[in-house]
TrEMBL record:
Record has Glycoprotein as a keyword: yes
Gene Ontology CC: one annotated term: lysosomal membrane
Keywords: Glycoprotein, Lysosome, Membrane, Transmembrane, Transmembrane helix
Family matches, as Pfam families: Tetraspanin
Gene from which this protein is expressed: Tspan1
Name of the protein in question: Tetraspanin
Keyword Glycoprotein found: yes
Subcellular location: Lysosome membrane; Membrane
The family this protein is said to belong to: Belongs to the tetraspanin (TM4SF) family.
Length: 243
């Protein structure tokens, strides 16, 4: 290519880099703002988005998740956008390094999820089962989200119906939760039909396997964007030496 063509291509890549990272920066700012809003005034968030949002807030601390993701996107967007605009090799290298670290972390998580599925189940059991025993039937929001999950996924408990043995719900009502095929027989006779109910963890895993193509496509798309971002930042970094 002629010097003019090379310069034109460099300018095009630079503009695309700026616009792409500006979008990331604005998205990060939006998520960060929503996260702070949920943290400061969660009730108004619930009033706008309804009961399900209340249930989600009980299970996962959405505010911290949004704040962390928003902050990461802000940093990435700033480094990429400002680095390209100012043609700063330092900022471009920092952008490349941050995206590379995130890319490696995603691969590591994916590998661990595939290899240590049983470990994940053990950890979830240790964390979730006590909550089911103590809070199901007591905490309305938690009870609602588990009822919705068990009804939609056609499951009972995290591992199976025995997660509710010695629970507040069973001690109070003498039956398993309604989504577990309605009012099941007493504990002594639970084997008659309770054992036919699979746990939600196995069912969710089965859904993931069924939709593995979609999940894999989304993951591959995100990975491709990250690789493209790293390639573009490195191209700009190297071209600055030639300039």
């Amino acid at each position: 290519l002629s010097p003019g063509a090379k310069m034109g291509f460099f300018t095009f890549i630079k503009v695309m880099m700026i616009l792409f990272n500006l979008a990331i920066f604005l998205s990060g700012g939006t998520l960060l703002g929503v996260g702070i809003w949920v943290k400061v005034d969660g009730q108004s968030f619930v009033n706008i988005f309804g009961t399900l949002s209340s249930s989600i807030l009980q299970v996962v601390n959405v505010s911290y998740v949004l704040i962390v993701i928003g902050a990461i996107l802000l940093v990435i967007g700033f480094l990429g956008c400002y680095g390209a605009q100012k043609e700063s090799k330092c900022l471009l290298m920092m952008f490349f390094s941050v995206v590379l670290i995130i890319f490696i972390a995603e691969i590591a998580v994916a590998v661990l999820a595939l290899v240590y599925t049983s470990l994940a189940e053990t950890l979830l059991t240790a964390l979730v089962t006590p909550v089911l025993k103590e809070k199901y039937g007591v905490d309305k929001s938690l009870t609602h989200i588990w009822n919705v999950t068990m009804t939609e996924v056609h499951c009972c408990g995290l591992n199976d119906y025995t997660d509710f043995n010695d629970s507040y719900w069973y001690k109070t009502y003498g039956t398993y939760p309604p989504p577990c095929s309605g009012a099941l027989p007493p504990l002594a006779h639970a084997h008659l039909c309770g054992c036919l109910l699979q746990g939600c963890f196995d069912q969710i895993l089965e859904e993931i396997r069924t939709n593995a193509g979609v999940a894999g496509g989304v993951a591959a798309g995100i990975g491709a964007l990250e690789i493209a971002a790293m390639a573009v930042s490195m191209y700009l970094y190297c071209r600055l030496d030639e300039k």
